[in-house]
Amino acid sequence: MRVVLEPAAFGEAAGWAARYAAGAGNSQPMLAGVHLAVAGTTLTLRTTDGDTMATVEVPAGVAGEGEVVLPAKLVGDIARRLPDERVCLDLEGAAATLTCGTLTLELQGMPPEGFPPPRALPTAIGTVRADDLAAAVRRTAAGIGDERQQPPFRSYGILAGQTLRIAATDRYRLPAADCAWQPTAGHQEGAALLVPPVLAEVAAGLPASGEVTLHADSARRAFGLSWPGQSVLLPVVDAEMTPYGRALTMASATRFAVEVDRKELLDALARVSPMVEPETVSEGGREKRVGQARLGLGFGPEGLQLAVRGRVGRIAETVEVPYEGPPLELRVNLGFLTEAVRATGGERIRIGLPNASADPRQHRMVTLARVGESGYLHVVMLMQAYGGPLDPWMAPPGQLRAA
User: Fold this and answer.
1) 45 and 68, same domain (yes or no)
2) Residue 368 phi/psi, 5° resolution?
């Protein structure tokens, strides 16, 4: 059976699908493959790592029907580099031959019977602009914890209310972005679920324009995204939702604030950062980082002061901006604050304190928002010698609510 394809469409589809295949060293070799199935005038490619499943369709000239499983990464890498000539894919049993101009690729694939069957997307809950969703996920990515974090602190929260809110927290920072969206008829406002970090990769691969349909089913514990010719099905994280709404309501009540030029602030942070000396311990003959990059964050009559004290000295710089409030000397993680400034974006940002106290010990968080924008807030917890990072926001065990 021969399939005729356009090189650009095939290369884009194969490269995109390969992202969601399992690595070659996994215990199930079949999951490192891409399932190709031909029917009618469509070639469908499917990949999965056992949890996430991606599907993409490519128009094709077809002379029959067939299916095969081929190495996903290899096919994706080669397909992206094809010359701009007609692609012919010949399938015979578990063998495949791809020709494009002077290039010939012969592969011995795997029987398709062992590949996981396709899973249907859950019920559609609404639509959102693809670029809005991609931006919201990108701007909240800083809140995703590293591999040491456990759910829900290594997950994206999807809060489907009047707006579509994307939020993430690792207990030390909480960025949240709102998107305008169109819920489907009968969708229950206030639905909330947690999805794994792979959402960032999905969002990065969304089209630059058009709409994305969101799908969710709490009973199946599944969340999906679909757009013309493509779809991704994600598992839902089995954990209790952090009370994002409550936390953000508290954080948005700014008492003291300064407005600064974002580039000027980033430059100042970069200048003081070389003085940072993270604490390390020796473990198994290797140095392991255990401390955090402490930055002195001062609010005063001259503006915002950034200071770092190291073993050999101290460095400080003042960003001169108007400030009306009591002088405050606070501490924050330099890396977290820098990431928050970058994620907030824009030309000018507002750095605020929700607490009206003149006592630095009463302050637990600093907030960042783009001047003139109401749909994004980035919370960074201050470094204190008492209490847990998100303790003030957490309801008693068993009483957490989504938003």
Assistant:
1) yes
2) -130, 140
Tens digit of pLDDT for each residue in 362-377? 998 999 999 999 999 9
Q: Are residues 234 and 129 in the same domain?
A: yes
Same domain, 134 and 85: no
* H-run or E-run covering 247: helix 244-251
Q: What is the CATH number of the domain that holds 79?
A: 3.10.150.10
Q: What amino acid is encoded at 179 in this protein?
A: C
Kind of pairing between the strands at 230-235 and 328-333: unpaired
274 is in which domain, residue-wise? Answer: 246-393
Confirm whether 119 is domain-assigned.
no
Residue written as token pair 């009968």: 186
Checking if the pLDDT of 385 tops 80, the result is no
Q: Which of 119, 122, 121, 120 is nearest to 217 (CA)?
A: 122
Please name the residues in contact with 93: beta carbons below 8 A apart, sequence gap of 6 or more: 68
Q: How many CB atoms lie within 10 A of CB 290?
A: 10
Report the number of distinct structural domains present in the chain.
Answer: 3
Distance CA 178, CA 199 (A): 16
Tokens of 312: 């050999």
pTM exceeding 0.85: yes
